[in-house]
Amino acid sequence: MTTTELPLLETRDLCGRYGQIEAIHGIDITVERGAIVALLGANGSGKTSTLRAITGTIKCEGTVVYDGVALARRTPEDCARTGIAHVPEGRGTLSALSVWENLTLGAYTKNRKQTQERYERVVVYFPWLEDRKHQNAGTLSGGEQQMLAIARALMMEPTLMLLDEPSLGLAPMIVRQIFDLLRQINKDDGVSILVAEQNATVALAAADHAYVLEAGNVAVHGPGDELMRDDRVRRSYLGY
Ligand SMILES: Nc1ncnc2c1ncn2[C@@H]1O[C@H](COP(=O)(O)OP(=O)(O)O)[C@@H](O)[C@H]1O
Ligand SMILES: [Mg+2]
Questions:
Q1: Residue 167 is part of a domain; what is its CATH number?
Q2: 3 occurs within a structural domain
Q3: Theoretical Cys-Cys bridge with 107: which of 115, 152, 206, 237, CB 3.0 to 4.6 Å?
Q4: Residue 16, ligand 1, Cβ within 6 A
Q5: How does 175-212 read in b/e, with b if 16+ C-beta sit within 10 Å?
Q6: What is the pTM of this model?
Q7: Which residues are placed with Cβ below 5 angstroms of ligand 2, an ion?
């Protein structure tokens, strides 16, 4: 990799608001190509709002540059078309639909043959999907639903995956499994990942770089292993 290579995603002075309330106040984040980047911070610090501002789901200002191109007036659909998959908070799987229907929703830009090819790739990471294809997504466990949400995002063959608290409400063993899978997907498929997490321990272990948010601003950032070793950061921002 040359030092002049463009980052995959860059936000500059990104602000996002809900009506009159500004939730994030100028966030600068860089995701290098092929990196796993963690977005940490307490509840209400602005993680979800940052991801939503990136995909244009909330009212926002500032710039988002993706693959060297400024994404002006973007919508979640624009982002999907450019290769950004968003796995939202609460997963967003449709419980009344089957596993297979949920997966095909992720592949809406693909024809039947491409969808099948993509499925064959995705099922390598989630082999249990094959037996559960026709089951209603609502009957899956919480961990399985989170994995289905990730699998659905992968169906669109993304370059960048945004994940919002994939560990939420899941047992530690399942959380480890999910982060192991994310690392494997990152390594084997080259998908770059920006993951918002309250579970700093597990996220930092996977991340090349991490940003800690506090009240809608970046309080500190650095390489994952550096932040993990920094006592001040641990005590002040990570709570362990
Ligand atoms: N729908 C909303 N309407 C008004 N304020 C909101 C809404 N969602 C979030 N906020 C506010 O924005 C701030 C950041 O929230 P959020 O991005 O959800 O944080 P996190 O994901 O880190 O928990 C908080 O102060 C929160 O109260
Ligand atoms: Mg959140």
A1: 3.40.50.300
A2: no
A3: 115
A4: no
A5: beebbebbeebbeebebbbbbbbbbbebbbebbbbbbb
A6: 0.95
A7: 47-48
